[in-house]
């Protein structure tokens, strides 16, 4: 199965596309869509949306996975993140794809085996699981790949990490 994982951020949204049978994973594409913090939020959201639409078009995933909303100390940051997640969900819905949502704890637990893993630990395990010699950069891209790997494993194993489905259409 081909999975697009998305790590939402208003200044840097990571994406990672993998092919996976749930046990073996192969990197297809990854990167980040960056925006200027000085640009108005609507302009940043449009750039993220068009970037994700391009990734979806170029890579033709069968499913999409995103990190679920988590508690943020700063309300403004949480609201910006929610806007970006909405744009990501919209791009997936426009492509006719179902979306799996996972908590940061579920993602890190699935990929690293420890729900409180650091970004560096996630980056290292993502590289190892994908058989890469160099670490995936930036962290937003390795985090997105971790989301994709978590989703692939959950889909194939039917584990209790089964995603919360977001309806589309």
List keywords for this structure.
6-stranded mixed β-sheet; 169 residues; alpha/beta
How is this structure best described in words?
The radius of gyration is 15 Å and the shape is globular. The protein has a six-stranded mixed β-sheet. The protein has helices at 41-59, 75-94, 104-111, 119-129, 139-157; strands at residues 2-7, 12-20, 25-34, 63-67, 99-102, 164-166. Helix 1 (41-59) packs parallel to helix 2, helix 3 packs across helix 5 (139-157) and helix 4 (119-129) crosses helix 5. It has a single domain (2-166), classed as Nucleotidyltransferase, domain 5 (2-Layer Sandwich), CATH 3.30.420. It has 169 residues and is of the alpha/beta class.
Alpha-carbon Rg, integer: 15 Å
Number of domain units:
1
Write the H/E string, N to C.
EEEHEHEHHHE
CATH level-1 class = Alpha Beta
Task: Pick out the low-confidence regions.
Answer: none
Number of strands: 6
What is the assigned CATH homologous superfamily? Ribonuclease H-like superfamily/Ribonuclease H
The CATH architecture name reads: 2-Layer Sandwich
N- and C-termini, Cα separation = 22 Å
Shape: globular
Question: How much of the polypeptide forms β-strand, as a percent range?
Answer: 15-25%
Strand order of the largest sheet: 3-2-1-4-5-6
Q: Which structural category do the helix and sheet elements fall into?
A: alpha/beta
What is the averaged pLDDT score?
92
What do we call the CATH topology? Nucleotidyltransferase, domain 5
Helix content: 40-55%
Profile the largest sheet. Answer: 6 strands, mixed
Q: Count of helices?
A: 5
